[in-house]
Amino acid sequence: MSRNTHISQNHLAWGSSESTPGENTKTETPAETAGAVSKSDNIRRDRVANWKSSGILTVVAGILSFILFGSGGALAYSTSGGVYVSDGSDSDTQAAIDAAPAGSTIQIPNGTYTWGIGIDCTKAVKITGASVGGVTINDNNTDGPLVYLAPVAGQSIELCNIIFQEGPAQGSKGNQHMITVGYAAGATPILLHDCSFYSNGHILSQVLWSQNGGVIWNCTFDANFTSDESLQFKISSVDTWETPSTMGTADTNGTANTYIENCTFQHSYYETIDLDDGSRTVFRYNTMNNTIVVSHGQDSSPYGNRHWEFYNNTFVWTIGSNNPNPGPTESPLNLQGFLMLRGGTGVIANNVLPDVTSQAWGTKGSINFACFSITQYNCFTQYPIPRQVGQSWSGGSGSYSYPQDPADGSGYITDPVYIWGNTGGTYYNNPGTWDYSPDNCGNGLTSADVIQSGRDYMVNTVKPGYTPYPYPHPLRSGTSGVPAAPQNLRIASS
Q: From the CA atom positions of the chain, what is the Rg in Å?
């Protein structure tokens, strides 16, 4: 029998008004989320205007430098053999990007730099620090992302070997991001690796990924015990739900899903991974240190996440001294589980998932499902709830539409979540359900009424016909950094 938990607004609300005790509430409306990508485009135009205005000062400064010190006194990027080496500033790095043809490398020398405006990249180049761990960039941009990457067709943009950390001016950054990956249909996947991200509670997410496709690996994400998200996957400009599943080897070229491999996530006990509109993600061989993954349904977001794969990850639960009254940065943290999933379908296999149990906080389900469309948004009453947990799309015979939401079109099918082969505890075989409280709809329905074992999710059952996509992802070959050794390439039942 599933554990059913009610979430009150003054405790922990996994919805559009999501909050953690002691943290600022972050709100999100459909209008705001729908404009996320266009807002980034506006930021890019504003940034170009800033560079143009600052360029006048740069020219004047360069003339004065030439007069006073000679031509060797002015710092600027140098180039040799397709490598453009900047002086480390955002302005000079942007100048190098603008000058470099596709296929070039933009290199930032080892050192610590503070960027107040940031950079945009709209061509297939590699942006890298001179060595892994040798370059630190303080994000002092208070208006938009520090780095904006616009995917292009034909070749990947690659960002690597840089430490990004929150700068002193970020108190006013609000719902912004350190890195934003934009959306472009048919673009070549972006590669992000061997980077680290450190924030202190003044941003929405360290990385916003607005594109399906790409590989993220060998990265560290640290939120310093705040509610900052590490990775947010959200495609706001188009509904990508109504195409068939690309889970496992159904992603024939490895470009339809976004792959997160061999990364470490820590000190974000609220929502370190946010799987949102249209996202198709593969989360494998990562370490989750006392933190949680959350997916959105078609509730606070207009479309909801499409599907996800979690396998061969290690989730860490630290009890410490089992203090009954721990502080906000003391173990055990007030963690509400490891996976909190509100929509779409997927697989959860071969992970280490310990039971989240402590004297201070009691017992929490390591895997939890929820449907907020029956208590907080939409107020649907008929199963299947549009795009709820255990729903997918095929467009084939036997598919159906949602009479409660005709705007979603037709072609939907029941495609259960499959859970198998996990170790480290016992509660993963008995997923819990969560409900938003108070019940704004007043129909008396709970998540347990519409999300049921044997229909919407299957425990101790391998997904029929499923084979994971090859690991490590083939796009990792030929890039810098040291890739992890291959591990189990095929998921087997326990």
A: 23
In-domain check, residue 480: no
pTM check: above 0.90? no
- Confirm whether 446 is domain-assigned: no
Task: For Cα atoms 211, 213, 215, give the angle at the middle one, nearest 5 degrees.
Answer: 115
| 452 assigned to some structural domain | no
Q: Which has the closest alpha carbon to 225: 290, 269, 166, 178? A: 269
Q: Which residue's structure tokens are 């690597």?
A: 160
Does 373 map to a domain?
Answer: no
pLDDT digits (tens, 9 = 90+) for 269-300: 778 999 999 999 999 999 999 999 999 999 98
Say which residues have a Cβ less than 8 Å from residue 118's Cβ, sequence separation at least 6: 47, 90, 139, 141, 144, 145, 146, 147, 148
Judged on CB neighbours under 10 Å (0-12, 13-18, 19+), 302 is middle
Element (H, E) at 273: strand 273-275
Residue 267 belongs to what domain range? 18-361
Least confident of 190-204, 327-341, 365-379, 458-472: 327-341
| CATH of residue 192 | 2.160.20
pLDDT per position as a tens digit, 58-85: 343 333 333 333 333 345 999 999 999 9
Percentage of the chain beyond pLDDT 90 is 68
Neighbours of 342 (CB within 10 A): 30
